[in-house]
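thread: overnight batch results

M.L. [08:02]
morning all. the overnight job finished for the chain we discussed friday. pasting input first so we're all looking at the same thing
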Amino acid sequence: MTLKTTLTTATLALCLGLGFGAAAHAETALTVSSWVPQTHFIYTAILVPYAESIATATEGRVTLNIMPAPLGAPPQHFELARTGVADITWGNFTYEPERFTAMWFAEFPFVGTDAEASSVALWRTYEAYLADNAAFDGVHMLGVGLFGGGQIHHGDKPVITPEDMANQKVRIGGPIQARIMESLGAVPVAAPATKAYELLEGGVIDASLHSVESVMNFRLEEALTQHTIVPNGLYDSSFFIVMNEAKWQSLDEADRTAIAAISGEALSRLWGQQFNAQHEKAMALFADGTHTFNEPSPELMAAITAVSDTMTAEWIDAAKAAGVADPAAMRAAYLAAYAALSAP
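M.L. [08:03]
and the structure it wrote out:
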């Protein structure tokens, strides 16, 4: 069988569950490449419900075929969609920093810990400032998201002052995280979050940067028990859900309209809601007495603020070179949108 005709069990279940049997074949089955296990909440609580919504919205004319294994490594997923190896992918802008310089503003310290508000704010900022940026050529953006603030998670000691980070080997997922760790005297080790367990087990790293939910969802809770929680986040990671542009244009206009109505801000909101729910679940799990949550000292906060200010100033020039007309205004628009959306 070819890639296009191989249906996963998940796809069959979706079609049958929604009443689309042999008598009502879908006109278009879109292949989806995902790189987390099928037990991960991004798969079960975001991708599968989104697939169900598309099948319903298009009355079965368009279905999503979520492949049982990824078609490439996590950093390859934007390119997989752009080149049509997969029709739809999701991934992390952080893994291709040079390509997505324009997005760095969303990953600096203190961009927010309410994932729903930050994800919606990021979508609105993308629509207003970045939709025509050349970095996104070749794909149709279905949604974007943030995970609600990354934090410092250590295996055996509290991190409270800058000195606590000295010479500590820390897994990081991108250059912004690396810059922060270097400024604190730590040794960054670049690797996707999916490699954290292996690196911890092998003694390669002492600590790892993650959202709190990732410690739970990547099964790191026994290895990482000391959590330093930076108000409004030490950093964030920005994500995409994209479709190959040619494939998007090949869909009937009515189906594009139906899918657009459940994508964009709606899909970005779903992303953030699920990350918020997972954060609360993790916080409850870690309240068992085996985990310690630490507050950063004023000295640590000052050190993080200093490197954040430096990175932001440098990014403005880099973003202009990447085609953003007014990076400062774009960042301000995001922060204003986040403040309004996260207000009580």
